[in-house]
Amino acid sequence: MLEKIDDLLVEVQNFQSSTKDETEQFRLKFNGKKGIMNDFYDALKQIPNEQKKDFGQKINILRNAVNEKLEELKSSTESKIILEKEDLTRPGFPLELGSRHPINLVKNRIIEIFKSIGFAVADGPEIEDDWHNFTALNLPEYHPARDMQDTFFIEQNPDVLLRTHTSSVQIRYMEENEPPMRILAPGRVFRNEAVSSRSHCIFHQIEGLYIDENVSFADLKQTIQFFTTELFGKSKIRMRPSYFPFTEPSAEVDVYWGLNSETDYRITKGTGWLEIMGCGMVDPAVLKNVNIDPDKFSGYAFGMGIERIVMLLYQMSDIRMFFENDKRMLEQFKSL
Ligand code: PHE
User: Fold this and answer.
1) 152: CA distance to ligand 1 center in Å?
2) 79: burial class by Cβ within 10 Å (0-12, 13-18, 19+)?
3) What residues are designated binding site for Mg(2+)?
4) Tens-place pLDDT, residues 186-227
5) For residue 284, cis peptide bond before it (omega within 30 degrees of 0)
6) Using the 8-state DSSP alphabet, how is residue 296 labeled?
7) For residue 328, what are the contacts with CB-CB under 8 A and spacing of at least 6?
């Protein structure tokens, strides 16, 4: 009897199965109701007491071997089943290419144009203090021009706010650097305005600043003319006198775009002219605020809004689209 068990042990250990059926046959042979193991358990009851210990141990070894083998077969047939079910020749899921946001496309293009004439890119925080957003820009407390910019305040006394324009970066840059300087500062700005198809409480500006000896309004005009020709391929611009506390004299620049579509009518308010920026010669009081000698240096600054330019270039009629992240809109810019 004991030898028979040894033989079975070898048989179990060598057993191989390639199908579920074969494995099931093996299981029934040993562990089935009428299987070998049950026969041995029955036999154990009949056996003389002094042999029970040896016999019992042998049966245990065999039982463990059988169960181990079954486990092993089970996991190998399971992985085989997975292989049979999965179609390994099926192509994978395509990885979708992202696209650039139209605002960034135009922003990058504008940066490129100004880089080609020597402007560097500067950066500043979106959360600002009163000094950089207002006071240093010649907008002291109670200055009526503060009302032009509906400010989102985060804290008051001392004021912490969301910058209302990128002009704050002018101040930060001039505080940290010596002239000559020629920078561009793109970024988001925030104003507490009613949201409509034409205006939003978040939008993007690009600030420009050029400080050196003998910078004149003619330099400003030429630079803007160069820029609009590069960006629009059209060069008809006009400058209207305007007012900003931090520039003197100040102007607003319009580019003639034309009226060929409904969107053109909407964005240009039916005039065909697009107002692209405010600009002017940096006020000597601002230079003093950042310790630059206004008798030695002069300069110009401009600030343009990106959204309206993008809307005309891509014929988009609602500014809110820029902030909704609708894939159907974004996907149209894939190849750009
Ligand atoms: N900061 C002004 C605005 O937001 C634009 C501007 C910038 C005007 C620089 C003049 C010089 O309206």
Assistant:
1) 18
2) exposed
3) 248
4) 999 999 989 998 889 999 999 999 999 999 999 999 999 999
5) no
6) T
7) none
* DSSP per-residue codes, 6-39: HHHHHHHHH---SSHHHHHHHHHHHHSTTSHHHH
- Structure-block tokens of residue 57: 């141990």
Among 183, 188, 244, 307, residue to substitute to test ligand 1 (most atoms within 8 Å of Cβ): 244
- What's the pLDDT at 291? 97
Q: What is the pLDDT of residues 253-293, one digit of tens each?
A: 999 999 999 998 988 999 999 999 999 999 999 999 999 99
Beta-bridge partners for 208 = 184, 302
Residue 93 and residue 253: Cα distance in Å, rounded? 50
Helix (H) or strand (E) segment spanning residue 311: helix 307-313
**Structural tokens at position 145:** 């021009």
Residues with CB under 6 A from ligand 1: 165, 167, 244, 247, 250, 278-280, 301-303
Give the pair of three-digit tokens for residue 46.
Answer: 């009949």
DSSP 261: S
H or E stretch including 84? helix 49-85
CATH T-level assignment (fold) for domain 102-333 = BirA Bifunctional Protein; domain 2 (3.30.930)
Q: What is the pLDDT of residue 156?
A: 87
Work out whether strand 202-212 and strand 127-129 pair parallel, antiparallel, or are unpaired. unpaired
Q: So what's the pLDDT on residue 138?
A: 94
